[in-house]
Amino acid sequence: MENNSEKAVKSGAWYIVSNVLIRAVGIITAPLYTRLLSTSESGYANNFNNYVSLITVVTCLCLIYSVGRAKIDFKDDFDGYMSSIQTLSSLFGLSVLILAMIFVPSEGIFGYNKLIVFILFAYLVVYPSIDYMQYKYRFEYRYKENIAISVIITAATVILSVGLIYMMPQDKGFAKILGTVIPSGAVALWCYFNLFKKGRTLYKKEYWKYALKIGLPMIPHGLAMIILARIDTSMISRMCSFSDVGLYTWGYTIGTLLMFITNAIGQAWLPWFNERLNAGDRELIKEKNLLMMRAGCILTLGFIL
Question: Which of 20, 58, 102, 271 is the most buried if burial means most Cβ atoms within 10 Å?
Fold first, then answer.
């Protein structure tokens, strides 16, 4: 039987491989999209993804940040906890959807018509379930299932996006948005029902209170992280045009490869870190953290060179 340290190393290695390969798909398909989409159409679709990342921080209440600690505090009913907080975030997301449909003007917002705004907020009702499922797998060291979700979404998005772009030549930007939303939305629904099937808990006051205590204070942090990562394209779209966003995004796609590698390492590190911290192994954490910092520094300098 593997101990958790060995599982963390193995899962980390596989996360790196899968993330690099998934990112490679993005780099490989970039020339394909440059032929199929104008820079304006590409920017139109990419900016939609920016709003998804930004608004979901609020609509999901950052409950995801409670999962690592909950795996320890509610280890006997972890599935019930995940099912319960999923209900909380989806209900809040549904409330935001209803409010958006009431108060959003008929001409739409964010540069999108009301139909796309509806799709955006409806998508955000179920989209967090992908994160909940992947976080659950991550803290259970089930990296195969976790990676499978990412691979399925990536492959389906590419195939469906290209197909819809050919089928909707007069509205390619909208086709690209649908090509992203439909596969992720389908996987999100699968995650939603499977989390509920496993946990069978819609509401538990203790879980909701616990998650909100951790999640709500993290919303400013989550927004700050997203703004730092996404403000560039939003500013370009406002100050210049969707066409300039498209040009910028194609170049930026290649530059984010290092981030995907470090994020993959972090995915494996976090479950192990929580367990060691709970066990009081602070010196071991410091030792391994220093090793990771040095490796990250060398890797970063290598990419810069």
Answer: 271
Q: What is the domain extent for residue 279?
A: 4-304
Greatest distance between any 2 Cα atoms in the chain: 60
Helix (H, G, I), strand (E, B) or coil at 201: coil
Quickly count: other Cβ atoms within 10 Å of residue 50's Cβ.
Answer: 20
pTM: 0.76
Q: How many Cα atoms within 13 Å fall on the side-chain side of residue 111?
A: 18
Q: Which residue do the tokens 């890797």 mark? A: 299
What pLDDT, in 10s, does the model give residues 9-46? Answer: 666 666 666 666 666 566 667 677 778 888 788 878 88
Give me the number of domains the chain comprises. 1
pLDDT in tens, 192-212: 999 999 988 899 999 999 999
Cβ-based burial of 174 (10 A; exposed 0-12, middle 13-18, buried ≥19) = buried
Angle between helix axes 242-255 and 219-239 (nearest 10 degrees) is 130
Q: How would you write 128-158 as a 3-class SS string?
A: HHHHHHHHHHHHCCCHHHHHHHHHHHHHHHH
